[in-house]
Design goal:
256 residues, alpha/beta, 7-stranded mixed beta sheet, 36% helix, disordered N terminus, 23% strand
Length: 256
């Protein structure tokens, strides 16, 4: 079982997600049901299938896989996140591991999903490891919720928290189709986009900011200072705040 690689996790992810697991569970958005239904059709999720939700976090996406009827197993490297997952999505097997060292046997799952996490991985190693645990012809899906900066206050908030200065937003700039193609292990990557809106009161939006990895990793006083600054973007606006996203859905299949 496993590839023999040493498990690894990005330092910012480890620090931020362990410190901010509670805020993550409360503040992070879910995903549009339309995207889930679309993906379940594209990668044939349902009874009799086994799906691995990789870097599952607190279970935001894991919980949406359960109603498909597929058997769901989750892998998460951060203990605090895994503990949140176990309590929020009971009945799902939660294992400790990373994308580069998945604690599952060869050819043991029909699909692998990665929501809001693939940009943390060592892509070549992770793609090889995912291919190892997938059955022949099995499917890989990657999803990201991207805050919609065409909305003025959202763009201003991102400026205030200095979002564009950090490599955690690399999922917006990486050519994922090229990364997948370079592995030579998968069919060409396909993409679709869906709209999603997260409705938040003031406390919820504060938790949304606290859940950002590089903010969560800061010392408490500095973290709260950044959160307070980010919240000035909604000064004068009435609650609830509607935070819009473009949900990016990518999928491909393991080559037989």
């Amino acid at each position: 079982m496993g590839s023999g690689l040493t498990p690894r996790i990005h330092d910012t992810a480890a620090a931020g997600f362990s410190a901010g697991s509670g805020a993550y569970a409360r503040g992070r958005p879910s995903y549009p049901q339309e995207a889930i239904d679309f993906l379940a059709d594209k990668i044939a999720l349902g009874p009799g299938k086994k799906v691995l939700d990789l870097a599952a976090g607190t279970g935001k996406f894991t919980a949406l896989l359960v109603p498909t009827g597929a058997e769901v197993v989750a892998v998460e490297p951060v203990k605090e996140m895994g503990d949140q997952l176990r309590s929020s999505v009971p009945g799902v097997d939660v294992l400790e591991g990373t994308a580069e060292a998945v604690p599952l046997p060869d050819a043991s799952v029909d699909a692998v999903t990665v929501a809001q996490a693939f940009h943390w991985f060592d892509a070549p190693l992770a793609l090889a490891e995912i291919a190892r645990v997938l059955n022949a012809g099995g499917d890989l899906a990657m999803l990201w919720n991207r805050r919609d900066e065409s909305v003025r206050w959202v763009a201003h908030m991102n400026e205030l928290i200095r979002w564009h200065e950090f490599n955690q937003r690399s999922y917006e700039t990486v050519d994922w189709a090229a990364a997948v193609a370079a592995s030579r292990l998968y069919t060409p990557l396909k993409k679709s986009t869906f709209r999603y809106e997260q409705v938040l009161d003031r406390v919820g939006l504060e938790d949304r900011l606290r859940s950002v990895s590089y903010i969560a990793a800061k010392p408490e006083a500095e973290r709260e200072q950044v959160v307070a600054l980010g919240m000035t973007a909604v000064d004068g606006m009435s609650e609830p705040f509607v935070l819009p996203y473009n949900t990016l859905v990518f999928w491909c299949s393991k080559r037989s």
